[in-house]
Amino acid sequence: MTLRCGAVTTKDDPVSRGDFERAVRSLHLSDLDLRDALLKLAAQVVSLTDELTRRLDGVEPLPAPPNTPAVVANSGSTFEHAIHAQMQQLLPKIRAADVNGVRVQLDTGDDKYTVTPADIPCAELLHLCHARCCSYSFSLSSADLDEGIIRWDYGQPYLIRQRASDGYCVHNDATTRHCTVHHARPRVCREYDCRDDKRVWIDFANRIPAPLDATTDDDSADKSFDLLERARERALAVRRESLAITSSFADGTPKHPTKR
After folding, report:
1. Domain-located, residue 146
2. What is the pTM of this model?
3. What is the pLDDT of residues 53-89, one digit of tens each?
4. Which structural domain, as residue segments, surrounds residue 202?
5. Long-range CB contacts (< 8 A, 24+ apart) of 117-124?
6. Residue 24: inside a domain
């Protein structure tokens, strides 16, 4: 027997959703660590192949004698130094190229309770826009996961969970289209400004909504996005997630309860 929040429990008691999600998040983090290790190995293999090719072709000078310190030898003259230098340049590019294929997505924005919400009179517009922004897919933050209020898609971590019936967020009331967890809504929801979104409005000022099936071409936005910056943000998100998991407990309240 063990004690959990003052109650006696047994080893056969059902696992709570919080415990289950914590275990799944740990597995996802391990997957990200393994993926990054493979990317580093790929960078090392490519760097090694390029350096061998240069030396065999006589493009680069011959290696310095064994155990020659890199500070003594000419830049790039020792094999290890040359490989290390190439990896430093190649690894960020490989990580950036891998961004779109990553299986775990995390929001890297600021604390949702400190951001300034967009000044949109949502309640007044629901009869026109039908809260279609609540049907959009986006990732949650580690803080959202720790808080345990917003549900995420177990098959596509950590995207907001959506209903199969209409594609809307599971926290959106299908009858009224109001958010049922408005006080704890994610950062993306708080900062989203629909005024210039052509999927929502033809003319926001005159309250002319776009067709409900309106879409936009996201390819141009993706092409203009700095992939290296996206890779750096992903690395930051992984560090935050690692800290969030290791600083929490399997039972009881977290060390640093999220603000309400």
Report:
1. yes
2. 0.63
3. 777 766 555 554 554 444 444 444 566 777 777 787 8
4. 104-216
5. 117/190, 117/191, 118/190, 118/191, 118/192, 118/193, 118/194, 120/193, 120/194, 120/195, 123/178
6. yes
